[in-house]
Structures are given as C-alpha cells and as structure tokens.
Amino acid sequence: MRTPGADGTVRAARRTGVKDADGMAVASFVLGLLGLLVLNLFLGPIAIVLASVALWRGTARRGRAFLGLGLGIADLVVLVAFMQVDNTVSWSF
What we know:
Layout: H1 4-35, H2 40-57, H3 62-86
Helix pairs in contact: 1-2, 1-3, 2-3
C-alpha cells in the first residue's frame, strides 16, 4: 500500500519527466532549424537524438519532436549534398 506522500512523489516525478521531454522536443526543433544554417555536422545528430529521446519519453509536443527529427535528418542531407558539390567536409556560401 502506498502512502499519500509516496503517491504525490510519483506524480511529481512523472510531470517533471514530461516537462523534460517537452523541453527536449523544443530544443531538437531549434537545433535542427539552426543546423540548416551552421554546424550541421554537429547540430543535426544532436537534434535527432533529442527528438528521439523526447518521443520515447512521451512528450506532449510530438509535432515539434517530429519536426526536430526531420530537420536533423535534413541537416545531414544538406551536408552530404554540399560535400558532393565542394568535395570537402565543410561548406561555405
């Protein structure tokens, strides 16, 4: 049998986990969007990982997590496309 304090603690921990997942979803979206412009070699994979963890933890912001996942993948696609054109790992305008 659970005590009232323990039950409240369990509920508080669950809310904190969901808020953390929501923050990860937003961070993945922002990093994925920023990665299209700069540092896509680093920001793309970070956006993919954050979005995946947010979805795994059950975020309430699933749309932002999926956008972050898509933008992270797009970062890597853009990097590969520019690498094919310039024959280098870095690209510039």
